[in-house]
Amino acid sequence: MMSPAPSRPSLQRASLLDLEPDLAQDLAPELHEALRRQTLVPSVALRPGLFDPEALGDGAVPRGFLVLHGMVVRDVRIAGGVASDLLGPGDILSVAEPEDVLVPVRTRWTSCSHARVALIDDGVLAVLERTPAIAGRLLLRAARQVGRLAVLRGVSQLPRVDQRLLALFWLLAERWGRVTPDGVVVPIAVTHETLGRMVGARRPTVSLALKELAREGSIARRRDGSWILDRSGLDRLEPPEMDMAPPDAALLPLGGAAA
């Protein structure tokens, strides 16, 4: 079966500081208006479906994009395996692959529901680089994004798939969750196959683990496709003390004598 055609974007131009006001929080008032005019970016509304980041602009390939709202799924394929992660508001992504990458990968992007992204080109990037107040805010976002990926990598190392799913859903709740009297609702409709790609498990195993989590009351799927989490499930994720041996690794000098 053929994959659906990539979604065709609808572009609007606006100041990045209007689209993301928190980036200007540390700016001196006298700089704000001038930088508003210098940071005009295409804001792209994505319909649900596949999209090509390199084709989002109005000619030149953007250097990267910033998710403004909605959700984007990135699938990364290495050999026969596929890993997926969900990207949301505030996440910053590079369009071009780094030149020093050795491991061959294929990347696919999908817009879920109606997402909107801001494209970052060379002109705006130059303004950001010489404006420490904005660059610092973007650096903080990137650091948080890297931190979330580190936690997700830790989730994939948990021995039980039900633990991995429980941790994953609480990670999703940190970004998209809504507190209700019955629990924390995660308004994300996601298939068991995609969940498996996020935690490193096969779809049948994910289905069995979700049934177990539902039986014990930790996670339940609602009729509208969203999920509701019970806070008691967090107790299962409490980590023990760091009592294992420290990593036994060292960076060896290049050009040393052969063994």
TrEMBL record:
Pfam (any one): HTH_Crp_2
Domain of life, per lineage: Bacteria
PROSITE patterns per record: HTH_CRP_2
InterPro entries found in the cross-reference section: HTH_CRP (IPR012318), RmlC-like_jellyroll (IPR014710), WH_DNA-bd_sf (IPR036390)
Domain HTH crp-type: residue ranges: 159-232
Gene3D superfamilies given in the database record: Jelly Rolls
GO-annotated biological processes: regulation of DNA-templated transcription
GO MF annotation list: DNA binding
Name of the protein in its database record: HTH crp-type domain-containing protein
Species this chain originates from: uncultured Solirubrobacteraceae bacterium
